[in-house]
Specification:
Structural class: alpha+beta
Number of helices: 3
Shape: globular
Strand content: 25-35%
Distance between the termini: 33 Å
Oligomer: single chain
């Protein structure tokens, strides 16, 4: 885990057009669908829009201090507020963040960074649930019962924020796996798995 705290500017998405490619998650599956949406704009940037079930997503490279951040949009989580973050993210295990606002995404990311890796759910400035994973950002040194308790608390906290998925953190962990169709997000950007290449966020 080689990553310094991030600032909210890392999550700003410059609006380059009217429509954006969107990763649509499928409940109880690791497949995604490639869809299109028109995100709202403010001061030249695209925003999340919970009314469209449209959240921001980011993948931050955490192994070599490259500074790479891939940005995109995801729908299917149902979050009305807050953000989720995880360093368990198959197969590269970078830091993946999904959220409604840049500030909440920053808070979730920095909560995980401060613990040397892990998973977190935040709302506003409040950390609702947190599972530290200080061993390579993947494993815990806590007793099994405590890990189980905290893992359940993460999913419960995500549901309190409106998430309708049965396993929210598991879904987050697969968003960056660029070998499963159709659309994924990596630290290099959006990947069209059928074409196996990076594609622009603008549709």
């Amino acid at each position: 885990m080689h990553l310094s705290p991030v600032e909210s500017a890392a999550f700003k998405i410059r609006a380059t057009g009217e429509r954006a490619r969107v990763i649509e998650v499928v409940s109880r599956q690791i497949l995604t669908r490639a869809t299109i949406a028109s995100p709202p704009r403010h001061q030249g940037c695209w925003l999340a829009d919970p009314s469209q079930d449209l959240l921001k997503a980011a993948v931050i490279e955490r192994h070599s201090r490259s500074g790479r951040v891939g940005l995109g949009f995801v729908r299917g989580f149902g979050l009305r507020r807050g953000a989720l973050a995880s360093t368990v993210a198959h197969d590269s295990h970078n830091l993946v963040v999904v959220g409604v606002s840049d500030e909440e995404m920053t808070s979730a990311a920095n909560t995980v960074i401060a613990s040397g890796g892990g998973q977190a759910v935040v709302a506003g400035n409040q950390v609702l649930a947190h599972l530290p994973l200080p061993l390579a950002g993947l494993m815990s040194d806590l007793p099994l019962a405590e890990v189980s308790k905290r893992a359940s608390a993460l999913d419960d906290a995500a549901r309190e924020l409106g998430c309708s998925l049965p396993s929210p953190m598991m879904t987050v962990s697969f968003l960056a796996l660029p070998v499963i169709p159709e659309l994924r997000l990596t630290d290099h950007g959006l990947i069209d798995v059928a074409l196996f290449k990076v594609v622009p966020l603008e549709a």
